[in-house]
Specification:
Blueprint: H1 7-19, H2 22-29, H3 33-47, E1 52-55, E2 58-61, H4 63-86, E3 95-101, H5 103-120, E4 124-130, E5 144-147, E6 156-170, H6 172-178, E7 192-194, H7 199-206, E8 217-220, H8 224-232, E9 238-241, H9 242-246, E10 252-254, E11 261-270, H10 277-295
Parallel strand pairs: 3-4, 3-5, 7-8
Antiparallel strand pairs: 1-2, 5-11, 6-9, 6-10, 6-11
Length: about 300
C-alpha cells in the first residue's frame, strides 16, 4: 500500500457500509453520487481489495469491508469527540455536549430541561441523540446519557435520579365514548395500545395478564411517543410516564392506583469526562431537573 488513505475516504467508506448504497451515503454526507462512487473505487484501488459487490438489494459489503467496520466506526467516533472537545475553550462552560436520551424522554421530558440549561449556560451547544438503545459511552459515542438501566461498567460515573411510575392513560374523548375502566379485567372491553417488537416491552405486557396480549392491541408500535400520541388522539388506552401523563390536559389516568412499572432513571458519563466543565454542568443540571420532576416541582408542561 504505497498511497496514504485519507480520513475523508474512510468516512465515505463507513457511510456506504452503514447506509447500504452510494446514493444514501451521498445524501448523508452532502456529496454527489459520482463523487462517492469515485472515492470508493479509489479506496479499493489503494487497498488492493474489493469492498462492495452489487446485488438486487444494493451494495453488499465483502469480508474485507466487514473486517474494517469497527475500526472505521471507532475512528469516526474519535473524530466526533475531537470536534466536541475542540469546541470549548479550556476550563469554560461552553462548546458542544452530545447526549443520548430514550425516545420518549427526548421528545416530552428533556426539552424543557434544555431550555433552562441554555438560560444558565448560553455558550453550550447540545447534540441530542434519541434512541432506546444504549449509546456506547466508553467508546465516546456520546458524552453523557440518560439511561433507564443501571450502568455496570466500572469506568462510568452515574447518578440515579428517579424511579418514574408508568401508568395507563386515555384521552377525555375516549373515556366519554367508552367509559372509564375500573379494574384491569375491564380492559378486556377496551381498546389498548401496546408494543410491536420490543422484547422488553412485550415481556412487561405479557406479565400483566391476557388483557395485554399482543393480539388484543388495536395499535402496535415500539415508539413510545407514538403510543402516547395515539392515546391523545382517542385511539385507545396507552402506557405513559405518570408525571408526564398527569401534567397533560389531553390525557386522563386510567385505574390510578395501578402502576405497570417503575422506570429507574440514571444520568451517566465517562469518568474521564466527569470533570470537564461543560460535561459536569450538563450532568449536574439533568440530575437537578429530574429530581424536581420526582418531587413534583418540575413536571413537564404539556
Amino acid at each position: 500500500m504505497s498511497s496514504p488513505i485519507s480520513w475523508d475516504d474512510q468516512r465515505i467508506f463507513l457511510a456506504v457500509l452503514e447506509t447500504g448504497s452510494l446514493s444514501a451515503a451521498a445524501r448523508q454526507l452532502g456529496l454527489s453520487h459520482p463523487t462517492v462512487r469515485t472515492r470508493i473505487e479509489a479506496l479499493e484501488h489503494v487497498l488492493g481489495a474489493v469492498l462492495f459487490t452489487r446485488s438486487v438489494n444494493g451494495l453488499t459489503p465483502t469480508e474485507t469491508a466487514e473486517a474494517l467496520r469497527e475500526t472505521a466506526r471507532t475512528m469516526a467516533l474519535a473524530s466526533d469527540l475531537f470536534v466536541r472537545q475542540a469546541s470549548a475553550p479550556h476550563g469554560e462552560i461552553a462548546g458542544t455536549v452530545r447526549i443520548s436520551v430514550p425516545e420518549m424522554m427526548g421528545v416530552e421530558v428533556v426539552p424543557p430541561m434544555l431550555r433552562t440549561l441554555r438560560e444558565k449556560h448560553p455558550r453550550l451547544r447540545v447534540e441530542l441523540s434519541l434512541s432506546n438503545a444504549q449509546a456506547d459511552i466508553l467508546a465516546h459515542e456520546v458524552d453523557l446519557a440518560v439511561r433507564t438501566v443501571a450502568p455496570r461498567q466500572g469506568a462510568l460515573v452515574a447518578r440515579k435520579v428517579a424511579a418514574i411510575p408508568i401508568g395507563l392513560f386515555a384521552s377525555p374523548d375516549y373515556i366519554a365514548r367508552r367509559g372509564m375502566p375500573e379494574t384491569l379485567d375491564d380492559l378486556a372491553e377496551h381498546d389498548v395500545i401496546g408494543p410491536d417488537r420490543s422484547r422488553s416491552d412485550i415481556m412487561i405486557a405479557e406479565g400483566l395478564g391476557p388483557q395485554f396480549s399482543l393480539d388484543r392491541f388495536v395499535l402496535r408500535t415500539d415508539s413510545h411517543p407514538a403510543q402516547v400520541a395515539a392515546a391523545r388522539a382517542g385511539v385507545g388506552i396507552a402506557v405513559c410516564q405518570v408525571p408526564l401523563g398527569e401534567a397533560d390536559l389531553r390525557l386522563v389516568r386510567v385505574i390510578p392506583d395501578f402502576s405497570i412499572h417503575l422506570l429507574d432513571t440514571w444520568i451517566v458519563t465517562h469518568e474521564n469526562l466527569s470533570r470537564v466543565p461543560r460535561i459536569r454542568a450538563v450532568f449536574d443540571h439533568l440530575v437537578t431537573a429530574f429530581g424536581e420532576i420526582r418531587t413534583g416541582r418540575g413536571a413537564p408542561a404539556a
